[in-house]
Amino acid sequence: xxxxxxxxxxxxxxxxxxxxxxxxxxxxxxxxxxxxxxxxxxxxxxxxxxxxxxxxxxxxxxxxxxxxxxxxxxxxxxxxxxxxxxxxxxxxxxxxxxxxxxxxxxxxxxxxxxxxxxxxxxxxxxxxxxxxxxxxxxxxxxxxxxxxxxxxxxxxxxxxxxxxxxxxxxxxxxxxxxxxxxxxxxxxxxxxxxxxxxxxxxxxxxxxxxxxxxxxxxxxxxxxxxxxxxxxxxxxxxxxxxxxxxxxxxxxxxxxxxxxxxxxxxxxxxxxxxxxxxxxxxxxxxxxxxxxxxxxxxxxxxxxxxxxxxxxxxxxxxxxxxxxxxxxxxxxxxxxxxxxxxxxxxxxxxxxxxxxxxxxxxxxxxxxxxxxxxxxxxxxxxxxxxxxxxxxxxxxxxxxxxxxxxxxxxxxxxxxxxxxxxxxxxxxxxxxxxxxxxxxxxxxxxxxxxxxxxxxxxxxxxxxxxxxxxxxxxxxxx
Length: 478
Ligand SMILES: Cc1ncc(C[n+]2csc(CCOP(=O)(O)OP(=O)(O)O)c2C)c(N)n1
Ligand SMILES: [Mg+2]
Hints:
CATH topology of the largest domain: Rossmann fold
Helix content: 25-40%
CATH class of the largest domain: Alpha Beta
Bound molecules: thiamine diphosphate, magnesium ion
Strand order of the largest sheet: 2-1-3-4-6-5
């Protein structure tokens, strides 16, 4: 078996069904091996879009998406996607080609040190130097990508290693990822904090959006009846239709939802990841924070929890609910603020002026999207409005990036969502600036015959930047 055949067999062994990318000369063996496999190679019009698609596959399924590029220029085009997946904690495997490493007949033509380039952008970046190691390296890559904290990995397969005959090496079988549940002592301390709280509030952060967590989170909220809000990337982890939903923190302070945050004496932060623009700013005064997540909190100037529950979040939350259900006298203390906060969200939502108010756009999009329809956002001014005003009823139906916050990912993310869910309605919402950063992928969407709608918000500007410039001018005058 050739190295490339072994690579493709190892990818099939991981359940990979499609790979996104643009091949080059150095991937020819891999492309041939793919042709003879069950895996579909989906050619995109730019490698960056391929990486955005693969990362979004990881985000929406919990299983790594795979993308492919050639050496040098192709591989470099994956880097923004690598950063997108790293900051956004999206499992992804990137495979790139390279010139032969056993001889250098083309000298250094197109050769760039991609492994070093990828190192700070991934959880692992490795060159494969012998075909015999492919099964174990591929298994390790997938294991790492889908183990908390999820993220991207990179494998470089030089063309001579892809072409060489490999000895008969068995594949390594995957098994479910095991994760310990939080310790009793930590759960007891957390339960005590929550019992003593007078005005508790739950916050759902980015890691709360892990697809496998939706059911346990909803149960936790239903069992304890503590009102909750979410960060931008935690949006939709629990149905926003719930009568305990208090809003989304689209800004770091003085947003509507901060009326509740500022009054809380305990915030139970589930899955908060400090890659997000802070949903609130911790200071010496203010609420106590209990961090519940897969991994310990990263301590930052604006986030330094007082206690932690670390472990597999779903089962840990169930154990916490077992200790507290029916015992919380103050669970609903902040609920009276709810109607006032949510009322602000529908202000100006039916105004008929032109250009449309952002509130009207969000309102109308919600109106035409079915409950399970998926909206994928690019980055621009409108993202804040969608984050704050769009009400979600189903987990993972508003896909946005509040971590790298890169322009250009909206359309590729929408393409991936439409591929994964051909029967659900999918809408990509992009600014005119962000849309043009990957507009070429419209051809990919058409070629794939996807049922995908793209809403382009035309203001003939990089609106977000124009807004900040205006803000500065006003400040300079005053
Ligand atoms: C790749 C990238 N380049 C630049 C930025 C900085 N940036 C953030 S928002 C923005 C403007 C976006 O313009 P547009 O897509 O038209 O949306 P609008 O704000 O006008 O609604 C820019 C340039 C970015 N986030 N990502
Ligand atoms: Mg614009």
